Amino acid sequence: xxxxxxxxxxxxxxxxxxxxxxxxxxxxxxxxxxxxxxxxxxxxxxxxxxxxxxxxxxxxxxxxxxxxxxxxxxxxxxxxxxxxxxxxxxxxxxxxxxxxxxxxxxxxxxxxxxxxxxxxxxxxxxxxxxxxxxxxxxxxxxxxxxxxxxxxxxxxxxxxxxxxxxxxxxxxxxxxxxxxxxxxxx
Length: 186
Prior knowledge:
Elements: H1 5-18, E1 43-45, H2 55-59, E2 65-74, E3 81-90, H3 99-103, E4 109-111, E5 126-127, H4 129-134, H5 145-149, H6 168-171, H7 175-184
Antiparallel strand pairs: 1-4, 2-3, 3-5
């Protein structure tokens, strides 16, 4: 590569963008439309779906999810559901990779769409179990095709119930399918 060709290419990019009209938004009065798949600073947690298995904490590469459980005695036929004593997410160190959401086998944890959670102290950037319970249930459609297929947009303000948040309707076989596969074909 001849000497100075890289500088010339860089200057061409600069000159091309010099004539372009800048895009400026007067935030917070004006807002840019947010993509429904945006992974924000908040998390949406459905307590009704959570069993306390701590898969999200195990798969978090930063180790920012703290879960303390005890046996609850509920749902013993299906497999024990644990009583959650602590479920804290330290978002000051979170890189919003979404591995915790992917790891949840029950679709109890979703990425949220908020981005205005600035705090003066790092210790305030912990989402507690009480905040998770009280938060608005408007999950991002990231890694949730069932929400995206329905045309759900978290910016609309519509909340999603815990029954509609799971993937089982789109990936789980119906009762008739299971009956054919496991009973009739054998």
